[in-house]
Specification:
Protein name: Response regulator with CheY-like receiver, AAA-type ATPase, and DNA-binding domains
GO molecular function: ATP binding; sequence-specific DNA binding
Shape: extended
Oligomer: single chain
Bound molecules: adenosine-5'-triphosphate
Number of helices: 19
GO biological process, one term: regulation of DNA-templated transcription
CATH architecture of the largest domain: 3-Layer(aba) Sandwich
Number of strands: 20
Largest sheet: 5 strands, parallel
CATH superfamily of the largest domain: P-loop containing nucleotide triphosphate hydrolases
Keywords: ATP-binding, DNA-binding, Nucleotide-binding, Phosphoprotein, Transcription, Transcription regulation
Radius of gyration: 35 Å
């Protein structure tokens, strides 16, 4: 055996690629020769003319492989190449990584595989006799969710660019080293596993009317659920913006509990409600020596339980000097408590919420731009309730169901109450709705909740609606009269008593029989109303 200087040592345990490594199978190593194999069979020296000196390729044993086999087990990979040795090598490497591998050495075989298998990843040579780019487009159309990795020769890098434009997610230029191939497959597989996992989270949390603890089935909420399922699997900061009461903290909790560390601690810090010094000690802690008279240290929330989540509510209210300190902690991934020279690793995931427009606070110099970008790695916008009125009945029923469980009273909404709630603007969003339902249960005299049990501002809104409808009716009547006059007819004379009768009856009709409310709206006492009804011959039944 000669020329060991120009050799590569392939190292690995039995059962890994090293054991059955055959250099002729891998494109970039195609012209390498096996020089020697050590007696244990776990190390091989190969050489080629002008090869890289002393390069060592380490093939980890499956158990040490950064991609665990079970992560890839469900990932279906198609390898397409018309060069049989390359095809075989790529398939072997991919199945060693745990992919479920399908091989194709022609466009026809590839089409058949695309038809039969729900492919997640496609590794394809662009230089196919029938035209690789058109085949790529075809695969993209048939399997739009799959990630496509293209292999090209150096001379055709421009076609790799074209392939990316057509939807390929990555590319390899031939000849490539084995770790380039495993790297690109690893990325594609991880991307796919991540998507499968986020879909699984979404399906798991998907209830009939919402997602986990979030209720709502409007398109805006459905979009939010898809993002929540994705970000739950990562550890990036998320900035949740939205008006007060739209559910920012509820979304933050859902992100935490639906992620892999859902059983760890979820802590909330109200940045706007704590004095700056208290906020600082909560976030960063302090050591005993920091202040005279302190006999113990305080742990920082930023370094509390590994894998936990810290929700910074109303982060816009954080003083600028603390913003700078938080930014440093996020950048260095290290937290320094007051009075301590030693940094402690940042262990929690940061989610932040604000009901103020942070980017305009940045423009006004009231919030640090660099911190804004750090926190806004993913931005979520909570839609106000008035923009998703279809969620109002679902939310109202959800809160009422909770009241039924807590009180064992079979509460239900009257049609009126539901109509008024559905038409109201809810400036205080879901929190206001939740409060209104609780109040109605507390005030109602029976299990049926009427409009009169709702907060006064909602009743006034309903009153305005009713009066507007009455004005419309009077206008219609006036128009009809002037039309009749214009046509030469005698003007219709309506007595005051008749107008009064009409106003009372219309109001009661529109309030679906709620006479107390009608009296209130008409500005008369309830005794007067009952007397009038008696005069009209309408019994109070
Ligand atoms: N989609 C939803 N489904 C069920 N309950 C919700 C939803 N959104 C909000 N809530 C409820 O409404 C109340 C207010 O929600 P939350 O505290 O999450 O709002 P917020 O936007 O963080 O409010 P603030 O800006 O005032 O801090 C909570 O009791 C929460 O349970």
């Amino acid at each position: 055996m000669s020329d060991t200087k120009k050799s590569v040592r392939i190292v690995g345990k039995a059962g890994t690629l090293a054991e059955d490594f055959r250099p002729e199978l891998v494109t970039p190593l195609r012209d390498w020769q096996l020089l020697e194999s050590n007696p244990n069979g776990d190390s091989h020296h190969v050489s080629r003319n002008g090869g890289v000196h002393g390069l060592e390729l380490l093939r980890p044993h499956a158990a040490e492989n950064p991609i665990r086999k079970h992560d890839m087990a469900k990932v279906q990979l198609l390898v397409l190449d018309d060069d049989p040795p390359v095809l075989k090598a790529c398939c072997e490497i991919a199945s060693g990584m745990g992919f479920a591998v399908h091989a194709a050495n022609s466009a026809e075989e590839a089409r058949e595989a695309v038809r039969v298998h729900a492919l997640d990843v496609v590794l394809m040579d662009l230089k196919m006799p029938a035209g690789g780019l058109s085949l790529l487009e075809e695969i993209r159309m048939r399997r739009p969710r799959s990630s496509i990795v293209v292999m090209t020769a150096f001379a055709t890098v421009s076609s790799a660019v074209e392939a990316i434009r057509l939807g390929a997610s990555d590319y390899l230029t031939k000849p490539f080293a084995m770790d380039e191939l495993t790297g690109v497959l690893e990325r594609a597989g991880q991307r796919r596993s991540f998507e499968l996992e986020s879909r699984r989270v979404q399906q798991h949390l998907r209830g009939q009317n919402g997602h986990g603890r979030l209720i709502g089935s409007s398109p805006a909420m459905e979009k939010l659920y898809r993002i929540v399922a994705k970000v739950a699997l990562s550890t990036h900061p998320v900035l949740i913006l939205g008006e007060s009461g739209t559910g920012k903290e509820t979304v933050a909790r859902t992100i935490h509990t639906s992620g892999p560390n859902g059983s760890r601690r979820f802590a909330v810090v109200e940045c706007g409600q704590l004095a700056p010094a208290v906020l600082e000690s909560e976030l960063f802690g302090y050591s005993r020596s920091a202040y005279t008279g302190f006999d113990r240290s305080k742990d920082a929330l930023l370094t509390s339980e590994e894998g936990g989540t810290l929700f910074l509510d109303q982060v816009s209210e954080m003083p600028l000097d603390l913003q700078a300190k938080l930014l440093r902690a996020l950048q260095d991934k290290e937290v320094r408590a007051a009075g301590s020279r030693q940094g402690v690793p940042l262990t929690v995931r940061i989610l932040a919420g604000s009901s103020r427009n942070l980017s305009s606070l940045v423009d006004q110099g009231l919030f640090r731009k660099d911190l804004y970008y750090r926190l806004n790695v993913v931005g979520l916008h909570m839609p106000p309730l008035r923009e998703r009125p279809e969620d109002i009945p679902l939310l109202a029923e959800h809160f009422l169901e909770r009241m039924r469980r807590e009180s064992a009273v079979a509460y239900q909404f009257s049609a009126d109450a539901m109509r008024v709630m559905s038409g109201y603007g809810w400036p205080g969003n879901v929190r206001e709705l939740e409060g209104a339902v609780e109040r109605a249960c507390a005030l109602s005299s029976g299990p049926v909740l009427h409009m009169g049990d709702l907060p006064t501002q909602m009743q006034s809104m309903a009153a305005i609606d009713v009066l507007a409808a009455n004005v419309l009716r009077v206008d219609e009547r006036r128009n009809a009269e002037s039309k009749s006059r214009a046509e030469g007819g005698a003007p219709a004379i309506v007595s005051i008593a008749e107008l009064e009768r009409e106003a009372i009856l219309n109001t009661i009709r529109q309030l679906h029989g709620d006479k107390l409310m009608a009296a209130k709206l008409l500005g008369i006492g309830k005794t007067t109303l009952y007397r009038k009804l008696k005069e009209y011959g309408i019994s109070d039944s």
